[in-house]
UniProtKB/TrEMBL annotation:
Pfam families: PhoU_div. It comes from Streptomyces maoxianensis. Gene3D superfamilies: Phosphate transport system protein phou homolog 2, domain 2 (1.20.58.220). Belongs to the UPF0111 family. This is DUF47 domain-containing protein. It comes from the Bacteria. Signal peptide: none annotated. SUPFAM superfamilies: PhoU-like.
Length: 206
């Protein structure tokens, strides 16, 4: 850990933790979506929309603190990138739920539940990791595991695409379902971006 003679603004740690906790909320709503009927999905979409708005508020709070702080706990560009990547995760999860409702999807293809399980695990790991930014301890296993999960998500996504194009679905349904599974894949990518940013910060601070 680099030795510093000046005090640092420490509220960033709490705000990053709050943002990650909100992502866990979003991942649980995705899990709920799997077993819900059409009316239940609409209600879940409303709760996801509220969670996404809470995520936006958390991101804006970080940016406001960044703009008003003279001393930051680590590089400003990394704070901005970390906050933005956390926000991206929530945006993608909310978009996926919204598309399911808007497209009136009756049944999601087999494999989507695996995508969502990967996202839920990545959300848990991310929420567990954020408090460790204070000390930069015990973070290596976090970014290694999130990168492994992203690789797993890639494999699931490719299998889903193969399923969608096997002739079982009509062309319009393929377009709808492909957009949903693609957005879920983008959420997995965003988790990896968060982990990579944390790794960059840890290397700089070591």
């Amino acid at each position: 850990m680099r030795f510093r003679l000046t005090p640092r603004e420490t509220s960033f740690y709490d705000m990053f933790a709050a943002s990650a906790d909100n992502i866990v909320t979003g991942s649980k709503l995705l899990m709920e979506l799997l077993g819900a009927d059409s009316s239940g999905r609409a209600e879940i979409a409303e709760r996801m929309r509220a969670a996404e708005h809470a995520g936006d508020d958390a991101t804006h709070a970080i940016f406001h603190q960044l703009n008003s702080s003279f001393i930051t706990p680590f590089d400003r560009e990394d704070i901005y990138k970390l906050a933005s990547s956390l926000d991206d995760i929530m945006d993608f999860m909310e978009e996926a739920v919204d598309l399911v409702v808007l497209y009136q999807v009756e049944e999601l293809p087999k494999g989507v539940e695996q995508q969502i399980e990967v996202l839920a695990r990545a959300a848990e790991l991310t929420a567990e990791a954020m408090p460790h930014l204070r000390t930069m301890d015990n973070l290596t296993e976090y970014w290694i595991e999130v990168n492994r999960l992203e690789n797993q998500a890639d494999q699931i996504h490719r299998k889903l695409l193969a399923t969608l194009f096997n002739g079982k679905y009509d062309a319009i349904e393929v377009l709808k379902l492909k957009q949903i599974v693609d957005v879920l894949e983008e959420a997995a990518d965003a988790f990896e971006h968060v982990a990579n940013t944390v790794e960059t910060i840890a290397v700089k601070e070591s």
